[in-house]
UniProtKB/TrEMBL annotation:
Residues 129-385 form the Olfactomedin-like domain. Residues 47-95 form a coiled coil. GO terms for cellular component: extracellular space. Keywords: Coiled coil, Developmental protein, Disulfide bond, Glycoprotein, Secreted, Signal. This is Olfactomedin-like domain-containing protein. SMART domains: OLF. Disulfide bonds join C130-C312. PANTHER family: OLFACTOMEDIN-LIKE PROTEIN 3, OLFACTOMEDIN-RELATED. Residues 1-16 form the signal peptide. InterPro entries: Olfac-like_dom, Olfactomedin-like_domain. One of its GO terms (biological process) is signal transduction. It holds the Pfam family OLF. Belongs to the OLFML3 family.
Length: 389
């Protein structure tokens, strides 16, 4: 009996333990289930947060894409602009550029030029407040193609007149007058022009139009300077230019024995004589009386020169360069002795023909009127003060 009682006790104990174990396990399972459902909840929350984040990211990426696209178009347009600026720079360089190897070349010529002893260094007697010199060519414009390969064109180099004059050819007696630059550019050939017939033919391209007068040369053994009144079509004055044995002043423009020029100070003659055959001489003339005020022998060679002009008492001579299609100011002579050859500006002119047949400075407009193989071209100059060099 005792044994049975023990057994029952043991069984009871065992089943009580079993129940406790089951209870324990159930609690654990519930806890685990709770935790799982918590995880589940959290995971769903995370998942939805992640989805939201992803959506945000996507829309931001889209925005970024759009911004990238705008940036790319902006860059493209900047690129095109850079291209254009580069092309313009290229163009300017070809017009006015300095290629080192050529410069060395040109410098050598210039040194030779300066070695030549200047004969006359007498300062120009007149006091003048004009002190500009060229710094560069700012712009170039081809205005028209009219007439033959050689000639001269110019506006009247005085304030009031807007008239344009054409001296076509190197041996003719009829000046064509246009009422304005507009008339000149829109005229079909010479159709809008008026003829001014001179009593004698001009020779070369050395003429100027100044204060309603044409000054031209008429050459035989001597150089005759003729002053012609445009208003009443009559010769006002004429004078023999007082030099012996003149020779063509530029070897590349042989038709022009003597060249005339107008600057801020008035009328100048650019010429050469047998006595000083290798160099160009310069004279200041009185535009009223045609008297010579002063003369200078410059150090600028005639050889390879094609044209010249005067600005503020400084003679600029333009030479053919070794580069085809280009000429260059390569010698300067300042009557006031303020600009030397070392300070000569690096000024290039493009050209089509063998040489510019004329280059005329207009002091009112600071423009050069050029005739190049029948093209009438304007060069706009930028200036600086001689003292700033
Ligand atoms: C200009 O001059 C050239 C050469 O002298 C001549 O052949 C041509 O016919 C002239 N043109 C005009 C429009 O006068
Ligand atoms: C033309 O005008 C100038 C002054 O403007 C005068 O000296 C000259 O005598 C005139 N000539 C003729 C032919 O009228």
């Amino acid at each position: 009996m005792r044994g049975l009682a023990v057994l029952v006790t043991l069984v009871c104990l065992a089943s009580a333990q079993h129940q406790a174990l089951i209870d324990y396990l159930e609690r654990r399972l519930l806890a685990i289930e709770d935790r799982i459902s918590l995880w589940h909840e959290q995971t769903t929350r995370y998942a939805s947060e992640l989805r939201e984040l992803k959506q945000q990211m996507v829309s931001q990426l889209e925005n970024l894409d759009k911004e990238k696209e705008t940036l790319r178009t902006n860059l493209d347009s900047v690129g095109t602009r850079v291209d254009r600026v580069e092309r313009e720079l290229d163009y300017l360089e070809t017009q006015n550029g300095a290629q080192p190897c050529v410069d060395v070349d040109d410098r050598l010529i210039e040194q030779q030029v300066t070695l030549v002893k200047e004969k006359q260094k007498a300062k120009y007697a007149k006091i003048s407040d004009c002190s500009d010199m060229i710094s560069s060519i700012k712009a170039m414009k081809i205005m028209k193609r009219l007439g033959g390969a050689k000639g001269m064109w110019s506006k009247d180099t005085s304030k009031s007149s807007g008239k344009v004059y054409i001296f076509n050819g190197t041996n003719d007696d009829t000046i064509r007058e246009f009422a304005s630059v507009q008339d000149f550019t829109r005229s079909l050939g010479m159709s809008l022009s008026t003829d001014l017939k001179l009593p004698s033919a001009w020779r070369g391209t050395g003429h100027v139009v100044y204060n309603n007068h044409a000054y031209y040369t008429n050459q035989a053994e001597e150089i005759m300077v003729v002053k012609y009144d445009m208003k009443n079509s009559s010769v006002t004055d004429s004078a023999v230019f007082p030099v012996q044995d003149p020779v063509p002043v530029y070897t590349l423009t042989p038709e022009t024995l003597m060249d005339l020029a107008v600057d801020e100070e008035g009328l100048w003659a650019i010429y050469a004589t047998k006595q000083n055959e290798r160099h160009i001489s310069l004279a200041k003339m009185d535009s009223n009386s045609l008297d010579i005020e002063q003369m200078w022998d410059t150090n600028c060679p005639r050889e390879n020169a094609e044209a010249a002009f005067v600005i503020c008492g400084t003679l600029y001579v333009v030479y053919n360069t070794k580069q085809p299609g280009r000429s260059r100011v390569q010698c300067v002579y300042d009557v006031n002795d303020m600009v030397s050859n070392e300070e000569a500006p690096l000024v290039y002119f493009p050209k089509r023909y063998g040489a510019h047949s004329s280059l005329k400075y207009n002091p009112q407009e600071q423009l050069l009127y050029a005739w190049d193989d029948g093209y009438q071209i304007l060069y706009k100059l930028s200036m600086k003060k001689k003292l700033d060099v």
